[in-house]
Design a protein that fits this description.
The complex is a heterodimer of chains A (113) and B (119).
Chain A: E1 10-14, E2 19-24, E3 32-38, E4 45-51, E5 56-58, E6 62-67, E7 72-77, E8 86-93, E9 102-103, E10 107-112
Parallel strand pairs in A: 1-10
Antiparallel strand pairs in A: 2-7, 3-4, 3-8, 5-6, 6-7, 8-9, 8-10
Chain B: E1 4-7, E2 10-13, E3 19-25, E4 30-38, E5 45-51, E6 57-58, E7 67-73, E8 76-81, E9 90-98, E10 108-110, E11 114-118
Parallel strand pairs in B: 2-11
Antiparallel strand pairs in B: 1-3, 3-8, 4-5, 4-9, 5-6, 7-8, 9-10, 9-11
Chain lengths: 113, 119
């Protein structure tokens, strides 16, 4: 069941504005990172990924930035649309040989009309 | 992108019964599949890693006799919640990795999830 007192970080932006969702990771050996979008009642949907030998990668309307010095990952969404409203999770692969991904806590993005 | 089909999307069952959830990769072969559990407003918690033709690897604290995983083919993995109880009610999500990207261990594709409610 739901843990009492646990709340997802939330971010509200106006439609058309840019949004930045942040994620801190703790493992300096993590070598691969992914952002997923999850709409209510659905499974996570792949957005964009980045390897640790890069610091920036761009997709369609999205950009992922990786700062290994401070172990920080961000997802920038340009010109947000109502359909961007969802929970966004970052995930990391702890090392190159790891099979599994470890997910962050998630951020709920709400787009205001 | 690759499609992962998960069935059923929701199930309601009585306490003490068993429930089977299927996860299929539709247009690719998946050497490895993963099962996650997600409570409301929380992140995904990995339950187990399922490799085709071998026993699943369970995360610490996950009862393997409670959550039976079978990965009999490269396109199908099943999770059976045995003797379900209300505390097992949750959103269960499977994911799969395309065999062709296995060497790089990247990019998981997720099913649509199964909402289990145990009465």
């Amino acid at each position: 069941g739901e843990s009492v007192g646990l709340h997802l970080p939330t971010l509200s932006v106006q439609e058309g504005d840019n949004s930045i969702i942040n994620c801190a990771y703790s493992n300096s050996a993590s070598d691969y990172f992914i952002w997923y979008k999850q709409e209510s009642g659905k499974g996570p949907q792949f957005i964009i990924d980045i390897r640790s030998n890069m610091d920036k990668r761009q997709g369609q309307r999205v950009t992922v930035l990786l700062n290994k010095t401070v172990k920080h990952l961000s997802l920038q969404i340009a010109a947000t649309q109502p359909g961007d409203s969802a929970v966004y999770f970052c995930a990391e692969r702890l090392n190159k040989g790891a099979q599994k991904l470890v997910f962050g806590q998630g951020t709920r993005l709400t787009i205001n009309p | 992108g690759a499609v992962v089909s998960q069935h059923p999307s929701w199930v309601i069952c009585k306490s003490g019964t068993s429930v089977k959830i299927e996860c299929r990769s539709l247009d690719f072969q998946a050497t490895t599949m993963f099962w996650y559990r997600q409570f409301p407003k929380q992140s995904l918690m990995l339950m187990a890693t399922s490799n085709e033709g071998s026993k699943a690897t369970y995360e610490q604290g996950v009862e393997k006799d409670k959550f039976l995983i079978n990965h009999a083919s490269l396109t199908l993995s099943t999770l059976t919640v045995t003797s379900a109880h209300p505390e097992d009610s949750s959103f269960y999500i499977c994911s799969a990795r395309d065999r062709r990207t296995y060497a790089t261990n990247e990019k998981l594709f997720f099913g649509s999830g199964t909402q289990l409610s145990v009465l």
